[in-house]
Amino acid sequence: MDFVLSDEETRPFEPSLVWVGDIDPKVATNVLKSFDKHYSVRDLMHLKRIRRVENEQGETVLCVILAMVSAATESDLAAFISSSNLAVSNLRQVGVSKWPPLTLAQYHAWKDSWPMYWRESAARKDPMSDVDRKFITGLMRELCNEAGQTGHPTSCSAAVAFDPATKRIVARAVDTRTSTGHPLAHAAMNLIAAVAAANQKSADDASAVAVDESSDSGTVSRKRRSADALYMCTGLTVVLTHEPCIMCSMALLHSRVGGVVYGLAAPRTGGMGSVVKVHTERGLNHKFLAWRRCAEERVRQVFGEVRDQDWHY
């Protein structure tokens, strides 16, 4: 089971060309102050400004980032160094990382180009415990077993929603487009509807009969959950046999789902890793975590490969 990271967290090394030069450690402060007044390197704050190297004589010198290549030519820098009477030698171009590393893998892959800062964020770690993985894998296998008993599992997908705190199953659903003829009856959409039905039942069961104190006759009123909030999946984890399409992914996001786990990817329609990653989009007003390849071989065994690339799950 893989944690589905954002595009920024999985992007490869992208170089940004900078001018660097060698200086004596004793004049480092003066050189950096002089260059900072004329050439900005604010876009490279994730990089260390100085790297210690040995020159041809075996002496330790400081190799420093002076300016972006896009900001000055070699002749411009040479003229500036001369007019400012700065002791800078071996002026040359170096490709450094354009982006700050967001994961430890990126840091290790990029740091050799130039020293950089690294601050590990707990938010970028996979928070799923081994116990939760075992429980979710068990749910996925149950979905596969139930689908296999229908006799035609390749024409549908299945989903389940549960409360990760209590492991209580809230709702189950399957894809019913074939049986109902409704083009929007995807498993995820049906699951949200099933959660809404479960929320309504829970609200009805828990409704308290209260006396309306504003009425002299003691009118009895029933507290009901707002219909607008019934579809909310706040905090729930959704497990699907297949990656939800972009429509279903947005519906799950809108319902404020807490997390999503799926088995097989949908290469041309998937909204959580294959085509887009709606759960990591900065412009959207809700973020959640997603995992893929849960019990992938078992899902593939029951449902087969996702051969029809245009089939939306």
Automatic annotation (TrEMBL):
> Which family is this protein grouped under?
Belongs to the cytidine and deoxycytidylate deaminase family. ADAT3 subfamily.
Its recorded name reads Cytidine deaminase-like protein
The record ties this protein, via Gene3D superfamilies, to: Cytidine Deaminase, domain 2 (3.40.140.10)
Q: Where is the CMP/dCMP-type deaminase domain?
A: 134-291
Which molecular-function annotation in GO is an example for this chain? tRNA-specific adenosine-34 deaminase activity
SUPFAM superfamilies with a match to the protein in the record:
Cytidine deaminase-like
Question: For this UniProt entry, which residues form the secretion signal?
Answer: none
- Please provide, in alphabetical order, the Gene Ontology terms of the cellular component aspect for this entry: cytoplasm; nucleus
- TM region positions: none
